[in-house]
């Protein structure tokens, strides 16, 4: 399938194919699983200092990667500043080395030849960053915490997510601890998981969308502040929280792959971490020039496990 890597390097994050919209019986505030002496910090990045990100922990993606997004990913747009990781989206002009000269593209739209969206733009009008821990750190079960401030504007598609790397997407499993984008013209924050069915590159989704207005009603200055996303992951469930509020509770009794994924449960195998700031694409919406530069600021990423 053109434009899709044959493993989990570049899946269609957020593509709602075969989606199961699952709702909690009652969405309410919940106390997180308490941290005590039985937990230990097994991996973290506090992003201390300034300059390049730590290449011992992270690697950057490059180019047009997935979801028909507008941005060209490059390492230069990810950097440390004042003890934070900054993923910055900019208005730019980057030549596309895969461009096919007979394409008919105008602005951010193009006429597709099959799935050749990566080759039909002569230039990328935007640049941004996506970093991940593939081949450097993966974990099975535990608690992941990310403190961050996101650019909550139309056209912005920031995410905190994880992937397995032993099968192609979606049979490798995908956990979206955080996504932000507009749904039916209104901004939402999402908490999802995806796994495979019997059709290649088609996912089954457990997806929970919470309107952004829900958070603004509690705090009209929500977008100006840092917030903490937490994933508690055991052999029985994945629970995703935002500032102690339970967003989604995913039972792993329901997350078995179809035939392509050999009937296995991808969430009982290790996953690696991704942070990215996409622009536009299938879910991001049309960006406005006055929103740039967009900055997605990450204070820390921490992973705990039981001793």
Summarize the structure.
This protein is mainly beta and 307 residues long.
Describe the protein's architecture and organization:
The longest helix has 7 residues, at 212-218. The strands form three sheets. Strands 2, 3, 5, 6, 7, 10, 13, 18, 19, 20 and 22 form an eleven-stranded mixed sheet that branches. Strands 1, 4, 11, 12, 14, 15, 16, 17 and 21 form a nine-stranded mixed sheet that branches. The protein has a two-stranded antiparallel sheet with strand order 8-9. It has a single domain, classed as Jelly Rolls. It is mostly beta strands and 307 residues long. Residues 1-6, 15-31 and 110-114 have low confidence and may be disordered. The chain has two helices and 22 strands. A hairpin with a 2-residue loop joins strand 15 (174-183) and strand 16 (186-196).
Question: What attributes characterize this protein structure?
Answer:
single chain, 307 residues, mainly beta, Jelly Rolls, 11-stranded mixed sheet, 9-stranded mixed sheet, 22 strands, 4% helix
Strand proportion, as a percent range, falls in 35-45%
Beginning-to-end CA distance, first to last residue? 42 Å
* Whole-number count of domains: 1
Largest sheet: 11 strands, mixed
Q: So what's the overall shape?
A: globular
Helix content: under 10%
Structural class: mainly beta
Label the CATH architecture: Sandwich
Q: pLDDT below 50 for ≥5 consecutive residues: which ranges?
A: 1-6, 15-31, 110-114
* SSE string: EEEEEEEEEEEEEEEEEHEEEEHE
Mean pLDDT rating:
89
Quaternary organisation of the protein chains = single chain
How many β-strands, per DSSP?
22
Give Rg in angstroms.
Answer: 19 Å
CATH class descriptor name: Mainly Beta
CATH fold topology:
Jelly Rolls
Number of helices: 2
């Amino acid at each position: 399938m053109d434009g899709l890597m044959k493993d989990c390097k570049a899946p269609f994050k957020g593509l709602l194919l075969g989606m199961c919209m699952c709702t909690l019986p009652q969405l309410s505030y919940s106390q997180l699983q308490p941290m005590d002496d039985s937990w230990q910090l097994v991996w973290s990045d506090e992003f201390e200092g300034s300059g390049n990100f730590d290449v011992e922990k992270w690697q950057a993606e490059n180019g047009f990667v997935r979801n028909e997004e507008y941005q060209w990913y490059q390492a230069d747009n990810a950097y440390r500043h004042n003890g934070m990781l900054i993923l910055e989206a900019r208005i730019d002009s980057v030549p596309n080395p895969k461009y096919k000269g007979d394409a008919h593209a105008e602005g951010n739209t193009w006429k597709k030849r099959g799935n050749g969206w990566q080759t039909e733009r002569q230039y990328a009008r935007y640049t941004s960053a996506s970093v991940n821990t593939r081949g450097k750190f993966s974990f099975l079960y535990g608690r992941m915490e990310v403190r961050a401030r996101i650019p909550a504007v139309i056209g912005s598609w920031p995410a905190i997510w994880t992937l397995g790397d032993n099968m192609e997407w979606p049979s490798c499993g995908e956990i979206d601890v955080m996504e932000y984008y507009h749904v039916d013209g209104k901004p939402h924050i999402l908490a999802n998981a995806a796994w495979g069915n019997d059709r290649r590159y088609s996912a089954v989704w457990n997806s929970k969308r919470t309107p952004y207005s829900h958070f603004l009603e509690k705090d009209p200055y929500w977008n100006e502040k840092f917030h903490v996303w937490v994933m508690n992951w055991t052999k029985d469930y994945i629970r995703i929280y935002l500032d102690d509020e339970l967003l989604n509770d995913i039972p792993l009794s329901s997350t078995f792959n179809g035939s392509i994924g050999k009937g296995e449960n991808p969430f009982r195998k290790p996953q690696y971490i991704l942070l990215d700031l996409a622009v536009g694409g299938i879910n991001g919406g049309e960006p406005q020039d006055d929103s740039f530069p967009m900055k997605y600021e990450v204070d820390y990423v921490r992973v705990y496990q039981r001793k």
